[in-house]
Amino acid sequence: MTTTHVPLPSGLPLNTPHRFYRGGERILTFRGLAVPDDFDGHRPEDWLASTTHLFAEDGGGVSRLTDGAELPDVLAADPEQWLGEGHVAAHGVAPGLLTKLLDSGERLPVHAHPDRAFATAHLDCDNGKTEAWIVLEAEPGATVWLGFRDGLRPEQLAELVDAQDERLLAALNPIEVHRGDAILVPAGQPHAIGEGVLVLELQEPTDLSVMLEHERFGLGEAHAFLGLERRLALQSVDLGPLTPDAVQALRGTWTDVEGAGPALPAAAREYFRAQVVRPAGTEPVTVEAAFAVTVVVEGRGTLSTEAGAPGRPLDIARGDVLLLPHAAGAVRVAGDVTVIRCMPPGGATAH
C-alpha cells in the first residue's frame, strides 16, 4: 500500500528584498516583529510564497519555507499535492500568483505594467502584471492614483515622461483610500500608491514595470523601460481615459464580508482570487481546498484543515501568514478573526 504524503500548512518567513523606494516598518509591525536597529528603510515589500525574481535590483524575491527550501523546488517535487490536479493540468507547476505585503513609506513613482500580449510579444514572458490592492491600513487622507483622467495621445505621454515633473501624477485619477478598500489595477493602467498605506497585493507573477516617473527615484532607463527602447515600452501604457464609472467598477470592499466572500471585483477572477473568511458570531466557517497564501488580517482564532490532525487546530492571530497546500483539504476557521486567502485563478472559490 502506497501512502501519499500530504504537505502541511507552512508559516512563511519574512521575504523583503531591497527596493528603490522607502518603507517596511508597517510590515514588521503587522507581522509582530521588531524593527531592527540596522533597518535600512528600503524593505517596503514582503514577497509571500513567491516563485518570482525581481526584474532588477540584484534579483532575489523567491520565497523559502521555514526549513530553508526554495518554494519552486518544493512545488516541483510534489505539484499535485501542493497545487491540485486541476491546476497542474491547466497551468503546470507554477502557481500563477505573486502575493505581497506593501508598505508605502513614500509615494511610489507613476508606473504601469505590461499586459500578457505585450509581455509575450516583447519580453519573452507569458504573464503581464494585472494587480490588486487590498487596503489593510491607511493614514488619514492617504491617496492612490489610477488611470489617466483624460485620454492622451502617444506624443503627449512621451512629453510627460520626458518632463519628469508633477504633471504626470496630476494627469491621473486620485482616489482617497481607507482600510477596507479593494482596487483592481488592470495591466496597462498607469498608477501610483501614496505614502502611508499598507496593502495586501495580489498580482500576476512578474516584476515587469514601466517606470514613467523614474529620475527622482534614481532609476536608469534600462530599468525604467524593461530594457526596451523607450517608444516601444510606452506602447504598453493605456492612454485612457479611465472614466469615473470605470474607476468605480474597479473598486470593492472586503470589510463587509461575513462568512466567506470575495474581496475583489469580479473582473479579478481571470488573474487571481482573494477570499475573505470571517466567522459570524460563534459559528466557524469552512471553505474548500485550495493552494492559498493565507493572511490573518485582524483578530485571533483557530484554523484547522481536513487532512490535519483531529483536534489540533492552529492558533492564528493578526499578522500570521501561512501557505496552505491544496492537499490539506477543506479549511475551517473559528474565532473572532478575519483571514484573507490569496489564490490562483480558477476553481469554485471564484464566486
Indicate the topology.
Blueprint: E1 10-11, H1 25-30, E2 45-48, H2 71-77, H3 79-83, H4 85-91, E3 98-103, E4 111-112, H5 116-122, E5 131-138, E6 143-148, H6 154-163, H7 167-170, E7 172-176, E8 181-185, E9 191-193, E10 197-203, E11 210-211, H8 221-224, H9 230-234, H10 244-249, E12 251-253, E13 259-262, E14 273-278, E15 285-287, E16 292-305, E17 314-317, E18 321-324, E19 331-343
Antiparallel strand pairs: 1-18, 2-3, 3-10, 4-11, 5-8, 5-10, 6-7, 6-9, 8-12, 13-14, 14-19, 15-19, 16-17, 16-18, 16-19
Structure description:
The chain contains 10 helices and 19 strands. Helices cover 17% and strands 29% of the residues. It has helices at residues 25-30, 71-77, 79-83, 85-91, 116-122, 154-163, 167-170, 221-224, 230-234, 244-249; strands spanning 10-11, 45-48, 98-103, 111-112, 131-138, 143-148, 172-176, 181-185, 191-193, 197-203, 210-211, 251-253, 259-262, 273-278, 285-287, 292-305, 314-317, 321-324, 331-343. Strands 1, 13, 14, 15, 16, 17, 18 and 19 form an 8-stranded antiparallel sheet that branches. The mean pLDDT is 94. The protein is globular. With 351 residues, it is an alpha+beta fold.
